[in-house]
Design brief:
By secondary structure, the protein is of the alpha/beta class. It folds into 3 domains: about 120 residues, D-Maltodextrin-Binding Protein, domain 2; about 80 residues, D-Maltodextrin-Binding Protein, domain 2 (3-Layer(aba) Sandwich), CATH 3.40.190.10; about 90 residues, 2-Layer Sandwich (Double Stranded RNA Binding Domain), CATH 3.30.160.40. Helix content is about 35%, strand content about 25%. The strands form 3 sheets. The chain has a 5-stranded mixed beta sheet with strand order 2-1-3-10-4, sandwiched between helices. A 5-stranded mixed beta sheet has the order 7-6-8-5-9, sandwiched between helices. The chain has a 3-stranded antiparallel beta sheet with strand order 11-12-13. Helix 9 packs parallel to helix 10. It is globular. It starts with a strand and ends with a helix.
Amino acid sequence: MRSPSIRLGTRASALARWQAGWVAAQLEKLGVAVELVPITTRGDQQQEPIEAIGSPGVFTKEIQRALLKDRIDLAVHSLKDLPTDVVPGLCLAAVPERGPVSDVLVARQHASLDELPEGATVGTGSLRRRAQLLHVRPDLHLKDIRGNIDTRLQKLRQGDCNYDAVVLAEAGLRRLGLAEQITQVLSVAIVLPAVGQGALGLETREDDPTTRETLAPLNHTATHRAVLAERAMLAALQGGCRAPIAAWARTEDDRLTLTGRVLSSDGTQKIESTLLGNPAEPVQIGLQVADELLAQGAARLVRASRTGS
């Protein structure tokens, strides 16, 4: 019998190639041959902050288009980059076990966020990170930074770029073997992660049951449920990538716990909700947390972040 084969689309960045390589290795252990197909996305080509590009899916649309056109069979996404809008004809077939969810500080001279001097310049391209940092340290100067992980670390090391520290996802640094660069793992009480942070999403065509069945052993049920809850919350808040929205779902004592947080762009206002529920009903939990946040004024904060008012 002919061994199954899968064409896997991947971006060219080091982290995207690591993610694709990891998935390919898991599939090859199952006896599945994998062909990596490189794809360039709009997010790879442009150097503006993600929010300034003004379009969700800058790292995913070209890969999804390749799926729909049957150029590839499988896309591997960082789930924090995958918009919540449903793309007709595609489905999230599997979500492997999640990596670390936290954000981390990488600083040139200081050991922690508390030790950064007043007015220190911190690089981040994320409104979510910016707002949460300003909430606890309103004196900081938050400066946009773009590029892949290596580029951002290089900009930090270059004194002429004037960064005292940058904030990055812990999972990305650890996956690339750069954990020694981490100065401080930021508590989720200070910086709650992005929806889907640390998790990979394996996307296929709905009309391709063979690939979906092949991917089934890679799915981690608890992680899949957690990200479904987070993504349902984000979709209900209609925040996309242009609002300071954070979420973290996890299984604790056989209950699915979801914490959602929305802030004003300047960090002066913060609302939060945490709900425990049935792990088998992740979408319902996400919608309930969104309802609680909306009741506290989340829509106003999201609207203001989009308009800059």
